[in-house]
Amino acid sequence: MADARQTAVESTFLEVVEKLTFMFGEQAAREEIDPEGEPWVEARMHFTGGQSGSLAVIVPRSLQPEIAANILGLDADGLNTQAVLDDALREMLNVVCGHVLMAICGEAADFQLEAPTNVELAAEQLSTFLADDNTSAYLLDDEPVLLHLELA
Prior knowledge:
By secondary structure, the protein is an alpha+beta fold. The protein has 4 helices and 7 strands; from the N terminus they run H-E-E-E-H-H-E-E-H-E-E. It has helices at 3-21, 64-72, 82-105, 123-131, and strands spanning 25-28, 40-49, 53-60, 111-113, 117-121, 135-140, 143-151. Strands 1, 2, 3, 4, 5, 6 and 7 form a 7-stranded antiparallel beta sheet that branches.
């Protein structure tokens, strides 16, 4: 990712996630993220318009209840259905994507966003993301989160 674009993406992501989920974040090194262990989930959406591509947010499955609880203003213990957890992650991605696109293309840019989708990742897929320069890593409340931006 180009330096100016990367800086805009990183600062926008952290600001939006803090306001939306009340989780405080910081940038992390991709090399410090362990792809083994628990399952990870990806929410991805494609966009076209002033810029085309896709944006994905990738989190450990165990972080989904906290994200959902904070977005919905509920207790994490009551959020036990995967559908609710996946919906919350897609909503977080949707909000982040809109702000990231405005940060890198300007507020007047016109985009068409496709509905986000979720998929569970295998360790090999996660390792591929971690090796990709289009992926940035963060710690949200000390939990790892990845953001993967692909521009056409």
